[in-house]
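Translate structure to sequence.
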């Protein structure tokens, strides 16, 4: 994980479970912001900056999958992990199609959440690094190569 403590948005309406997951995240040296509803999650996303989101599927006012769709539209680089006690193949497939990093069925051990979150953050960091490297390349140069022919363009790609 990055050197600064990652900020995680934790969306869980069951307070005892939420407290357990916060403890799991503290063990991973993360700072969690807990919200208990979809509306609160959308407001937190708008107001803050997060490194990842952990979303329960069943919330009192909307589905965690609805929040996931919002994240993909407005925060496409934010990894989201879906958690649910009502896991089914259909829900898992839908979550992955909507862009979830992973789908975890409750109950789960701390290590499962920590490893999944670590992998999500590493993948996000790698994607950001790739974007930066691509942005540094101009269409007609690559390191010290010079040329604009079709063959050279293929080499650059």
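Result:
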């Amino acid at each position: 994980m990055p050197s600064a403590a990652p900020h995680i948005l934790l969306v869980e309406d069951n307070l005892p479970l939420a407290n357990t997951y916060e403890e799991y995240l503290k063990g991973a040296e993360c700072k969690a912001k807990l919200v208990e509803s979809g509306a609160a999650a959308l407001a937190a996303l708008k107001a803050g900056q997060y490194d990842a989101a952990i979303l329960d599927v069943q919330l009192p006012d909307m589905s965690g999958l609805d929040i996931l769709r919002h994240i993909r539209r407005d925060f496409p680089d934010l990894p989201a992990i879906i958690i649910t006690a009502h896991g089914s193949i259909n829900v898992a497939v839908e979550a992955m199609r909507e862009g979830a990093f992973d789908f975890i069925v409750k109950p789960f051990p701390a290590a499962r959440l920590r490893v999944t979150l670590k992998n999500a953050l590493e993948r996000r960091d790698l994607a950001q690094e790739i974007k930066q490297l691509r942005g540094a390349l101009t269409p007609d140069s690559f390191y010290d190569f010079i040329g604009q022919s079709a063959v050279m363009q293929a080499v650059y790609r």
